[in-house]
Input
Amino acid sequence: MRLRALQIFILALLIAVWYLFTKPGLLPNFYFEQDNRAAFFFGEPQKVFQVIVDWFASGEIFGHLWITLLETALGFVIGSVFGLGIGLWLALSRTASAVMDPYIKGFNSMPRVVLAPIFAVWFGLGIWSKVALGVTLVFFVVFFNVYQGVREVSPTLIANARMLGASPRQLLRSIYLPSAMSWVFASLHNAVGLAFVGAVVGEYLGSAHGVGYLILQAEGTFDVNTVFAGILVLTAFALVLDGVVGLVEARLMTWQPRASETEKV
Output
């Protein structure tokens, strides 16, 4: 309760600072020559929140938000499943890992955002070009964490399990997967944000729907309040999706000690 109150206090403090520095005439100018310049570049919080209220009151945002969330969810799920499956496969097969190593490193070093125009050509301007970009961003984060998590399983533990007669399937279910789950969920928290990046960047480059499209339209008219409104809406829903991942993690990782149970250093 105290932690939540502190978080709300920090949020209120940030909004208050934002208001003080962008309200024309409220404080002396530190950088800009004119009073309204700060508001032009950074928006005003009361106008930003008014845009958000208008969006939800009129229902204008729901169609765009649905498209962006659908693209994000599909990119997140497909990228995570591929990252988990291929990460497990290469971590458990040293030959396949050695063969695929230069290709994995090469694709990972590629600036994947530049693939967005190519995906638009391949899949059109619908949701699947955004999903494909999200998959490429999410996949490598999950893949490398799964790969590392499986590789760091104690050889002594595996040897003991084999000595007790554990089959490869039992090793996978009882040792490899539980050992990799901490790494998987750590990567999923990062992958949520990357899935949103894939959806919004794709909407920037070519779309007629989505929150990224709304932000692009607002940028074209220098409406910075609407731009910040779109950013805040996306941030809020990214936190919601991250919270869902956290709930699933708490449900599945029951053997992990809670924060209150860990020993303080």
Remarks:
- The radius of gyration is 23 Å.
- The chain has eleven helices and no strands.
- Residues 145 and 183 are 5 Å apart (CA to CA).
